[in-house]
Design goal:
Layout (H helix, E strand, L loop, with lengths): L4 E5 L3 H13 L3 E6 L8 E2 L2 E5 L4 H4 L5 E4 L8 H13 L2 E2 L2 E2 L4 E2 L4 E2 L4 E2 L4 E2 L4 E2 L4 E2 L4 E2 L4 E2 L4 E2 L4 E2 L4 E2 L4 E2 L4 E2 L4 E2 L4 E2 L4 E2 L8 E2 L6
Parallel strand pairs: 1-2, 1-5, 2-4, 5-6, 7-10, 8-11, 9-12, 10-13, 11-14, 12-15, 13-16, 14-17, 15-18, 16-19, 17-20, 18-21, 19-22, 20-23, 22-24
Antiparallel strand pairs: 3-4
Length: 209
């Protein structure tokens, strides 16, 4: 059976992880990658960089599905911009779940989101559009992860917690049950969020003890 093709936008480190998940996922054939001008002609794990953002309008008719493979730490702006552009161009934003992850049939995932190896999205959890639930992360029951968020490696969003749009939750950080983290926050590596955080909060990585 011929698999549908998918185009990746972004040729950096996050793209490497996305490629591995998509290969294991097995439902798409990776057609190529969109990168920077200096990356054209190079390969990432054997997949060629076909062009830059400028080629996206002309490639849409050939490759209907797309995944944003640009990472997100300090700001979601690039991923938000690309999501808006690709949606306007008529691309289908694929939703990818690693076969080594678990997403409850009672959970919801938005368009353009990826759930990576070892991650869990539990019952009645909601993950919005264009999100990254990275390797070994946990989104517990009834939690809400809004659009354009990155829940980084081994981070924990406990039951009933809410993560506002565009927020980054760093590796090994954890959100207490029921807390609300506002929009465009940066929760640094190893932090313990025990109370609500207003939008724009920046918590540096937790110091070693």
């Amino acid at each position: 059976m011929v698999r549908p093709t998918i185009l990746l936008v972004g040729a950096g480190g996050h793209a490497i992880s996305c490629i591995d998940v998509i290969e294991q996922h097995g439902k798409f054939e990776i057609a190529g990658i969109i990168g920077s001008a200096s990356e054209i002609g190079s390969t990432v794990l054997g997949y060629r960089v076909l062009g830059t953002d400028e080629e996206l309008p002309s490639l849409g008719a050939r490759y209907g599905s797309v995944l944003i493979a640009v990472g997100q730490i300090k700001t979601p702006d690039t991923r938000v911009r690309l999501f808006a552009q690709l949606t306007e161009m008529g691309y289908r934003l694929a939703t990818i779940v690693s076969p080594r992850a678990y997403v409850s049939p009672r959970a919801t995932l938005g368009a353009g989101s990826i759930v990576m190896h070892g991650a869990i999205v539990n019952a009645r959890a909601s993950v919005g559009r264009n999100c990254i639930v990275n390797s070994m992360a946990l989104v517990e029951h009834d939690a809400i992860v809004s659009d354009h968020c990155h829940i980084a490696t081994a981070a924990v969003v406990n039951g009933g917690a809410t993560v506002g749009a565009g927020t980054f939750v760093g590796s090994h950080s954890s959100l207490r049950q029921g807390v609300t983290v506002g929009e465009r926050c940066v929760i640094g590596l190893g932090q313990r969020v025990l109370a609500d955080c207003p939008s724009g909060t920046s918590m540096p990585p937790r110091a070693e003890t």
